């Protein structure tokens, strides 16, 4: 780290994560479920700024900051910094500011993406020279979704989320509209109810031919469970379907729930149509944002 780094403010994007499909398999002895998912990341996300300080200080701002845990020690960002220090990396006191734009408890991986971004940022700022493989190994111990959020490209995620394969040749429409009904979903509860509905299962295979219609057809295994538990998610999905352009080529397979919910998404080939659709979702009374996927490994 250079001397100029001590006064510099570093800014990073923590992108929203979108599960384009999600297939759930058997529950493992460690409590996690086997899964398979195609995941993408967007230009929309939280903004994290980092600067050297005289003491550790986490500042939360943005429209969804009030929904974060009141106990700062429960925040994945703080846990990530402490993890690096426990591994004997010399991390000085930091002021970290998070502009929380991603809905909390909404299936868009906001907390995991924030944590992954902190690991990537501190590795870069302080020249820690931690390999990608080792980052994946240490981050999964904090949260199963964090390793996949180290990526900035489309990936296939398997295992409990720790087996990650980047996709370089998958065709996915560039533009995505995200929407949220204002619900904070309890992921653990959704999985428990999913297990109650289904006594056993095997992880389904993601189609090898990564054609948009093919892998979206595999759907999201948690969607029906979440809709039963949170009826507002079903209302949102019905609204999104009714407002989607009737003559658009991707209709209707591109409207799905992401992760365990409550956020849902719709895909588009062009920005104009996506922006108009987003505006209509907002007029219907839902939070919504129009963005595009990023693809840089």
Fraction of helical residues: 25-40%
Spatial shape: globular
Biggest sheet features: 10 strands, mixed
- Give the distance, in angstroms, between the N- and C-terminal Cα atoms: 24 Å
CATH-defined topology of the largest domain: Ribosomal Protein S5, domain 2
Number of helical segments with 4 or more residues: 8
Oligomeric state of shown chains: single chain
Spell the H/E element sequence: EEEHEHHEEEHHHHEEHE
Mean pLDDT: 88
Radius of gyration (Å):
19 Å
What is the percentage of strand-forming residues?
25-35%
CATH hierarchy, class of the largest domain: Alpha Beta
Provide the low-confidence segments as ranges: none
The structural domain count equals 2
């Amino acid at each position: 780290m250079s001397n100029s780094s001590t006064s510099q403010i570093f800014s990073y994007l923590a992108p929203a994560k979108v599960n384009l499909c999600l297939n759930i398999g058997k529950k493992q002895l460690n409590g996690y479920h086997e899964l398979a998912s195609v995941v993408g990341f967007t230009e929309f996300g939280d903004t994290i700024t980092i600067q050297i300080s005289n003491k550790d200080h986490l500042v939360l701002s943005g429209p969804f900051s009030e929904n974060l845990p009141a106990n700062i020690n429960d925040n994945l960002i703080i846990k990530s910094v402490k993890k690096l220090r426990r591994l004997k990396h010399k991390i000085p006191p930091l002021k970290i500011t998070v502009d929380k734009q991603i809905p909390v408890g909404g299936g868009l991986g906001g907390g995991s993406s924030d944590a992954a971004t902190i690991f990537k940022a501190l590795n870069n700022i302080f020249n820690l020279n931690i390999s990608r493989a080792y980052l994946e190994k240490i981050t999964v111990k904090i949260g199963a979704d964090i390793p996949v959020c180290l990526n900035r490209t489309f990936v296939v995620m398997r295992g409990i989320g720790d087996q990650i394969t980047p996709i370089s040749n998958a065709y996915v429409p560039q533009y995505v509209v995200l929407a949220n009904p204002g619900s904070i979903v309890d992921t653990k509860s959704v999985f428990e109810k999913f297990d109650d509905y289904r006594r056993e299962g095997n992880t389904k295979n993601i189609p090898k031919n990564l054609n948009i219609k093919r892998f979206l057809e595999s759907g999201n295994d948690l969607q029906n469970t979440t809709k039963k538990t949170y009826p507002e998610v079903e209302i949102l999905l019905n609204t999104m379907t009714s407002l989607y352009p009737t003559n658009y080529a991707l209709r209707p397979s591109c409207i799905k729930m992401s992760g365990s919910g409550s956020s849902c998404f719709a895909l588009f080939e062009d920005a104009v149509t996506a922006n108009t659709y987003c505006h209509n979702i907002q007029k219907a009374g839902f939070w919504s944002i129009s963005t595009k996927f990023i693809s840089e490994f």
